[in-house]
Design goal:
alpha/beta; 6-stranded parallel beta sheet; binds nicotinamide-adenine-dinucleotide; Dihydrodipicolinate Reductase, domain 2; 26% strand; single chain; 37% helix; Rossmann fold
Amino acid sequence: MKRLKILQAGLGGFGKSWVKIIGESGEWELAGIADVNRENLDGAAKEYGIPAEKCFTSFDEAVKKTEPSALLNVTPPEFHKGLSIRAFKAGLDVLVEKPLSDNMKDAEEMVASAEKTGRKFMVSQNYRYRSRPRTLKKLLDEEIAGKISYVKVDFQKMAAFSGFRAEMDYPLLIDMAIHHFDLMRYITGKNPVRIYTDSWNPSWSRAKGDAAFNIMIEFAGNIHLSYSGSWVSAGKETSWDGTWEIYGEKGTLSLQDGTIFFITEKGMKKISALKLEREDRYMALYEFYSSIKENREPETSGRDNLNSLSMVFNALKSAKSGQAVAFCK
Ligand SMILES: NC(=O)c1ccc[n+]([C@@H]2O[C@H](COP(=O)([O-])OP(=O)(O)OC[C@H]3O[C@@H](n4cnc5c(N)ncnc54)[C@H](O)[C@@H]3O)[C@@H](O)[C@H]2O)c1
């Protein structure tokens, strides 16, 4: 099979780990790497043995010299638009890290540019490509719990803050919650109708901005969800997927510390998670490849992701105003 050539921009804390995934993917060949920070660029080159002729501090030069067919954009959110639009115009398909952008306007402009240039545009919402969320989704589609009415999601971690997150006003809401918002839409199969956020920074937090929240969301189909989260949980921590309880007319589906249970009046049954051929970012990268080969929209396309991203910014609007915010129809 002929591999497709991908250029990676951004070799920081998370970016570096993508190089290994590309190398192991089977479908992609690393055309080159680009980073404006020489130290990060050289660090990645040394770690993975990438030759100097494939390493660039200029993105445009990298595109010109390596002739990739796609870009993997792992720069911080405020730089996603600039590089992605330049890539579309150069004829590249783009896989961008979450969150799609740090504002809705830029996100919409990227989606419009992808459509105008006819390029594939996908967001790596990697949590969606994990076995437990996919198992919950399958079970709900099979109506194991019947009609669902309310959901509880809890995310608790003690994060070591550094880099751009330490300076953000709402690090949990802007940088992390997008994973869970996207999972909520995916698992329930519904879009949000209304959102209310109570956001604060616990007294012991090392973050500058709010590191904790309680959020109430109403989804289409009269599904009501409560979501609590903290980046500074000093005791109990949850998995990265979070703890989920989904209440339906026939029983409750629960995801707790990586294990799925179905609970009814008769008792509690453990359910094995699906065995996926590829997980997480490996599956995201494969979905990006498949969408190109099959000439179809990727599952977590930029266009679809606007719905998940709007949850971030409407939650933020609510946190700032103290009012519930309705989603545009
Ligand atoms: N999916 C996940 O679970 C997950 C986890 C961590 C980070 N991320 C996302 O990955 C992205 C990067 O995060 P990070 O933690 O690696 O950030 P980081 O700050 O550690 O690294 C970003 C890198 O991008 C480089 N960069 C900035 N502007 C550039 C430009 N114009 N051209 C080329 N390089 C440029 C910086 O020099 C830096 O090396 C963010 O969108 C973040 O939210 C996702």
